[in-house]
Amino acid sequence: MPTGTGDHDASRGDRARQVVPGGWKRVLLGFAIGAAVGAVVGLVLPRDDGPHRSRG
After folding, report:
1. Which residue, of 6, 33, 43, 50, has the greatest Cβ tally within 10 A?
2. 11-24, pLDDT tens digit by residue?
């Protein structure tokens, strides 16, 4: 039997989650990009309110 210390020998609890440095920055950057794209789409696409009667 091999006695290596690779990932295949680690139990599931040992490698359940890996913490990456700068993860919060990526989350905030992704949120900011999504908000910017949503704002652009909201400004570019026409509103679908249906026909309007003119007052007057």
Report:
1. 33
2. 555 567 777 788 89
